[in-house]
């Protein structure tokens, strides 16, 4: 058969004829040349003996060299008693399975979601109605995504999460670390619920152990401190609008975020009301504050120095309200114990004897003063726009106590007016036992 081996030149000269040709190349290999009417295609066939039976098979080779190599491989297999046709089919199946596995792995890799991608999906799916969405996005963009954003969510472990938290704690922001751990837990639970990841990497992390215990603030400014604050404010270097904001929060019990987002259309100077719409309220409950003369005067001062016809506290471009943290940062900046050269006086201009205070402490202080002035607790809760915790009362008691609320704000305003008058004859009331 070796003598039948075609030369490369002879192979190249093969031409289709009127009839099909089967030309031997030796070793059981044949070159099949289809007839002209069948298109004249060239293919390779291998003839072998297995258990005394002559069997033909078509090879996959495209060139003569490939065909000879394939023939030699099948000849070896046939000598071992293995059917080359069966082996050819098994080889094709193995190739198919390997391709499917490769495709599955590729699909799996494509399906992998980075933490950044997971965060975007969480925002678009679950967070669109959250009022703190801008703050959540700011926190993740600042502290989470730069550290673990590019990692596949499936690969996140406790060590990745604690790395994020530890970096925040190292700069002294323990409360931010606490809040961010809670937010990451919400995001990873979202991922588990949708089979994006198999387990929540934050599940076994204790918020209090990893960050800090939740401390309930009880800071209340004393009446002496309110008098001192009134003396300190003019020299504190605050904007007039921020000074007004301090007295408004104290006299109306509103939250700093609710005040920051207020528009002038929410203030009715004739009716003496400050309306907080649902979209501005923390608990999604619209609220009307009946302004005392003290509070009304602060709104008038604010209106006289207004920088926007829409917003009480506009941003620099007057395109929206000021950042909700702006007022808080200004107040915090005047209670900084760190001395910064020529700014040291301003940095400590609002320090009070009983320690640091925040805008929310003003809300608590106003509510406490109402209680000390014999205002009923249910009325104070209404003034605070708190949601009734008792389900039975929440369902069956819908009285608004508008008259009582207006009276409570009036009483508080009168007390604040006395405390902020520069007179040594004003005697602070004693707290009820």
From TrEMBL:
<dbReference type="InterPro" id="IPR053876">
    <property type="entry name" value="Phage_int_M"/>
</dbReference>
<dbReference type="GO" id="GO:0006310">
    <property type="term" value="P:DNA recombination"/>
</dbReference>
<keyword id="KW-0229">DNA integration</keyword>
<protein>
    <submittedName>
        <fullName>Integrase</fullName>
    </submittedName>
</protein>
<dbReference type="Pfam" id="PF22022">
    <property type="entry name" value="Phage_int_M"/>
</dbReference>
<dbReference type="InterPro" id="IPR038488">
    <property type="entry name" value="Integrase_DNA-bd_sf"/>
</dbReference>
<comment type="similarity">
    <text>Belongs to the 'phage' integrase family.</text>
</comment>
<dbReference type="InterPro" id="IPR050808">
    <property type="entry name" value="Phage_Integrase"/>
</dbReference>
<dbReference type="GO" id="GO:0015074">
    <property type="term" value="P:DNA integration"/>
</dbReference>
<dbReference type="InterPro" id="IPR011010">
    <property type="entry name" value="DNA_brk_join_enz"/>
</dbReference>
<keyword id="KW-0233">DNA recombination</keyword>
<dbReference type="GO" id="GO:0003677">
    <property type="term" value="F:DNA binding"/>
</dbReference>
<dbReference type="Pfam" id="PF00589">
    <property type="entry name" value="Phage_integrase"/>
</dbReference>
<feature type="domain" description="Tyr recombinase">
    <location>
        <begin position="216"/>
        <end position="410"/>
    </location>
</feature>
<dbReference type="InterPro" id="IPR002104">
    <property type="entry name" value="Integrase_catalytic"/>
</dbReference>
<keyword id="KW-0238">DNA-binding</keyword>
<dbReference type="InterPro" id="IPR010998">
    <property type="entry name" value="Integrase_recombinase_N"/>
</dbReference>
<dbReference type="Pfam" id="PF13356">
    <property type="entry name" value="Arm-DNA-bind_3"/>
</dbReference>
<dbReference type="InterPro" id="IPR013762">
    <property type="entry name" value="Integrase-like_cat_sf"/>
</dbReference>
<dbReference type="InterPro" id="IPR025166">
    <property type="entry name" value="Integrase_DNA_bind_dom"/>
</dbReference>
């Amino acid at each position: 058969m070796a003598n039948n081996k075609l030369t490369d030149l002879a192979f190249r000269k093969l031409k289709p004829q009127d009839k099909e040709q089967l030309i031997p190349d030796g070793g059981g290999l044949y070159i099949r040349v289809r007839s002209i009417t069948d298109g004249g295609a060239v293919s390779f066939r291998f003839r072998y003996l297995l258990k005394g039976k002559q069997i033909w098979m078509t090879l996959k080779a495209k060139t003569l060299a490939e065909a000879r190599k394939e023939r030699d491989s099948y000849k070896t297999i046939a000598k071992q008693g293995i059917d080359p046709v069966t082996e050819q089919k098994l080889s094709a199946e193995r190739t198919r399975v390997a391709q499917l596995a490769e495709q599955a792995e590729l699909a799996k890799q494509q399906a992998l979601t980075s933490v950044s991608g997971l965060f975007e999906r969480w925002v678009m799916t679950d967070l669109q109605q959250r009022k703190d969405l801008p703050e959540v996005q700011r926190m993740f963009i600042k502290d989470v995504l730069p550290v673990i954003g590019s990692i596949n969510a499936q690969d996140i472990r406790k060590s990745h999460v604690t790395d994020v938290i530890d970096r925040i704690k190292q700069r002294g922001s323990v409360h931010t670390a606490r809040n961010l751990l809670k937010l990451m837990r919400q995001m990873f639970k979202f991922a588990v619920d949708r089979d994006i990841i198999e387990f929540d990497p934050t599940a076994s992390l204790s918020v209090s152990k990893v960050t800090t215990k939740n401390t309930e603030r009880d800071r209340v400014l004393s009446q002496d401190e309110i008098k001192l604050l009134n003396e300190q404010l003019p020299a504190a270097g605050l904007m007039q609008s921020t000074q007004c904001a301090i007295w408004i929060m104290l006299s109306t019990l509103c939250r700093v975020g609710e005040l920051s987002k207020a528009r002038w259309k929410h203030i009715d100077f004739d009716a003496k009301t400050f309306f907080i719409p649902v979209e501005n309220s923390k608990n999604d409950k619209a609220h009307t504050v009946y302004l005392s003369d003290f509070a009304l005067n602060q709104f008038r001062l604010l209106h006289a120095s207004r920088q926007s016809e829409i917003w009480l506290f506009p941003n620099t471009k007057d395109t929206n309200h000021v950042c909700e943290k702006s007022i808080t940062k200004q107040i915090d900046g005047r209670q900084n114990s760190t001395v910064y050269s020529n700014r040291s006086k301003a940095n400590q201009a609002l320090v009070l004897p009983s320690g640091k205070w925040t805008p929310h402490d003003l809300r608590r202080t106003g509510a406490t003063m109402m209680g000390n002035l014999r205002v009923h607790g249910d009325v104070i809760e209404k003034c605070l726009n708190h949601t009734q915790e008792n389900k039975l009362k929440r369902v069956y008691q819908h009285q608004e106590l508008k008259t009582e609320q207006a009276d409570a704000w009036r009483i508080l305003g009168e007390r604040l007016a006395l405390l902020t008058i520069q007179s040594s004859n004003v005697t602070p009331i004693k707290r009820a036992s």
